[in-house]
Amino acid sequence: MPRRPAKLPRSFYDRDTVTVARELLGMHLVHVQDGVERRGRIVETEAYVGPHDLAAHSSKGITPRTKVMFGPPGHAYVYLIYGMHHCMNVVTEAVGQGTAVLLRALEPVSGIESHTKGPGLLCRAMGIDKRLDGADLLGDALYLTPPPRGEAFHIVQRPRIGVAYAGEWAAKELRFYIDGNPFISRK
Question: Is the pTM of this model over 0.85?
Answer without folding.
Answer: yes
